[in-house]
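From: lab user (bench 3)
To: helpdesk
Subject: output format question, protein + zinc ion

Hello, I'm new to running complex predictions and I'm not sure whether the block I got back is the full result or only part of it. Here's what I submitted:
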Amino acid sequence: MPLPSTYAERNCSLARALEVVGERWTLLIIRDAFFGVRRFGDFATQLGIPRAVLTSRLKSLVREGVLSRDDAGSYQLTERGIALWPAVRALMHWGDESYSPSGAKRALRHDADGGLVDAGNRCQECGALVPVPELRIEPGPGYEPPAEPQDPVSTAMNQPRLLLEPISP
Ligand SMILES: [Zn+2]
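Helpdesk reply: Thanks, we reran it on our side. This is the complete output you should expect:
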């Protein structure tokens, strides 16, 4: 669904980026991919997204070079996809600041030293800018444990884990 091609939009990289990631499900698929979801069925279970919509969004993300799909049907973020991390992180942080009075829903730590990582991706322990594969995500102070047992994918996503580490082998 291309945007109207006005002069202003041709010269706006935000408009171009939103053509790829501006749809709600798409950013949630990308978030799940950072959290280690790789299989169609796992995205479907975790997101509760209609399968036809999921198929279409995954195709579009592969076409745009954000995800790659291997022969076994497993999806992984490409370098271009991983480069979306600061945008995902900034929106998570904005959501926490705006709507989570008890604090971050999820905390990020530098795996090497356990230091908390701030919204700018800097470790509060060692001061390093932490690359995505060295980020550990865990329930934060604003995390509300689910009242009912969850599916295995959601349960795995709510355990402390390294980003990009696959949930199912
Ligand atoms: Zn550190």
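A quick orientation on your result: The domain at 7-81 is CATH 1.10.10.10 (Arc Repressor Mutant, subunit A). Let us know if anything else is unclear.
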